[in-house]
Amino acid sequence: MRPMLVGNWKMHGDGSCLPLIARIAAAAEHHPGVAVTLCLPATLLDRARSVAPSLGLGGQDCHPDLEGAHTGDLSAAMLREAGAGLVLLGHSERRRDHHEDDALIAAKVQAARAADLHVLLCVGETAQDRDAGRSADVVRDQLLGALTGRALNGIAIAYEPVWAIGSDRTPDPAEVAAMADTIRTTLANLSDQSVPVLYGGSVTPENGGGLFARGGIDGFLVGRQSLEPDAFTAILETMTRP
User: Fold this and answer.
1) Under 8 Å between Cβ of 173 and 211
2) How high is the pLDDT of residue 241?
3) Fewest C-beta in 10 Å: which of 75, 196, 215, 242?
4) Rounded CA gap, 100 and 77, in Å?
5) What are phi and psi of 10, to 5 degrees?
6) pTM, rounded to two decimals
7) What whole-number distance in Å separates Cα of residue 231 and Cα of residue 39?
8) Angle 18-29/42-51 helices, nearest 10 degrees?
9) How far from 189 is each of 105, 159, 182, CA to CA, in Å?
10) What are the catalytic residues?
């Protein structure tokens, strides 16, 4: 299993960013031992495929239906046709701002896999959950709510503590490792398939090496730093050091 590095551009980027995508693709080609993917706005996917054909591309969400009267939404099949091979689902911003619950996320997971998209399922606790000592319970419930009864091939998990996203705060590597163990133990009760576990939440070149070496993880989901090719490449390099 190759380590994974996934960048989430969120609602950033337009055609002027294509040279940045090409730079990231060139860096990824120098580190073939890591699977690098950019989750871009859907408007960029096809153009990114043209300038960076070797780079993994992903969407940031999908609708659970194949088609229908869903103005403004995109199906998993549409993302696939545009060039995506992966889709983020269950991101904390979708859970919070769009009130997505586990049942809806589970339906999206099913739709994405039916369209042959890999899924990076995001899970994580809020500061209130953490303060109440409920971090593991919240993450376990999110996993079981989205994945119960489903084959886990094509699934990866991103542990993103909500309190760390965009905050310049990160958990200690030992805390990340403990949560990664919780995730793997929970998934082992569903399937004997090996599922990659990534960490996301204020990942930087400065903390990436320690988190990757001691956090018990298989890679990173990176937000704002993925918009900066030099910073994103530096994070990539922390994953390839002996």
Assistant:
1) yes
2) 82
3) 242
4) 21
5) 50, -145
6) 0.96
7) 16
8) 50
9) 20, 18, 11
10) 91, 160
Which residues in the chain land under pLDDT 50?
none
Please report, for residues 13, 40, 131, 183, the alpha-carbon distance to residue 136 in angstroms, rounded to integers and kept in the order given. 35, 30, 12, 9
Task: Count CA within 13 A, CB hemisphere, residue 152.
Answer: 22
Residues 6+ positions from 137 with CB-CB distance below 8 Å: none
Strand 86-89, strand 155-159: pairing: unpaired
Radius of gyration (C-alpha) of the chain in whole angstroms: 17
Task: Give 211: exposed, middle or buried? Use CB within 10 Å, 0-12, 13-18, 19+.
Answer: buried
DSSP code at position 17: G
Structure tokens at 193: 């398939």
Both tokens of 220, joined, read 């990173």
The DSSP bridge pattern shows strands 56-59 and 86-89 to be parallel
Whether 7 and 220 have beta carbons less than 8 Å apart is answered as: no
Question: d(Cα 125, Cα 62) in Å, to the nearest integer?
Answer: 22
The amino acid present at 173, given as its one-letter code, is: P
Helix axis angle for 229-238 and 205-214, nearest 10°, is 30
CB contact set of 30 (below 8 Å; sequence gap of 6+):
none
Give the pLDDT confidence score for residue 211 in this predicted structure: 96
What is the rounded CA–CA span in Å between residue 33 and residue 86? 18
**How many Å apart are CA 82 and CA 77, to the nearest integer?**
9
Cross-strand pairs, 199: 159, 220
The pair of structure tokens assigned to 165 is 């996203």
